[in-house]
Amino acid sequence: MRILIVTDIEGVASVVHPEQTREGNAEYEIARRWMTREASAAVCGAFDGGASEVRVNDSHGSYRNLLADELDPRARLVHGKPRTLGMMGGLEAGFAGVMLVGFHSRAQTQGVLAHTINSAAFARVWLNGKELGEAGLYGALAGELGVPVIFASGDDIFAGETRPLFPHCVFTVTKQATGRHSAISLSPQASCEAIRAGARQAMAAIGPASPLLLDTPVQARLQTQTPAHADLFCQWPALERIDGVTLQFSAASVEHALRMLNCLSAMASALR
Ligand SMILES: [Zn+2]
Known about the structure:
Layout: E1 2-7, H1 26-48, E2 53-58, E3 76-78, E4 97-103, E5 122-127, E6 130-131, H2 134-144, E7 149-155, H3 156-162, E8 170-179, E9 182-185, H4 188-204, E10 218-224, H5 227-233, E11 240-243, E12 246-251, H6 254-267
Parallel strand pairs: 1-2, 1-4, 2-3, 4-7, 7-8
Antiparallel strand pairs: 5-6, 5-10, 8-9, 10-12, 11-12
Helix pairs in contact: 1-4
The structure holds zinc ion.
């Protein structure tokens, strides 16, 4: 059984502030170590549960956060950007499952550091009329490759919004969100123990899990953070403007929809 572990940082235990997520800050250097430990805990759980191969992808910011020499050496590390599958980099058809570690809730919710792909540019994203965050968007991309999401960790708001998408997924709640920048958190050590146990449990329950499948072509809708972002994005002829901050486009697949969203996210830097 081959497993991909996708790692982000905002849902890691004891991470609550943007400075912990941005390079160039002393606190970030501590938080990336916690992120690496939670990734390794999931690697341990996957192997405890019978995985034959585990890849860990780094999916926060620059995609260069995990400390390679501290990651469980049994895993292969997928890092660096840009890459075509974005947060699903390293996934192939035939993998048994995907684990999402350190994830956060979607933009406009009450979760810790909630956002969707690009906090400066994107306010809300819908595929086929369903509003999704990163777990849902990329879970649907994994689904397109026939792979189910079997385990996820993050705060309680993330778990609550994501659970209905993946009914057989095992969740580990790392912290209770008490605001955008505050939480009641497990300690890093306790969180790692819970993630290892949850990942092992997910491996045992892999049978009934089914991939998240969306109808194609995919109808994507995007609400931008400002009208200036919509002004910029609708220069792309494939995008239709609905109102000051809403755009829509059609994509042949979830993969193509995400590639478009990631292109728009990169374009958004023109407005900074
Ligand atoms: Zn992130």
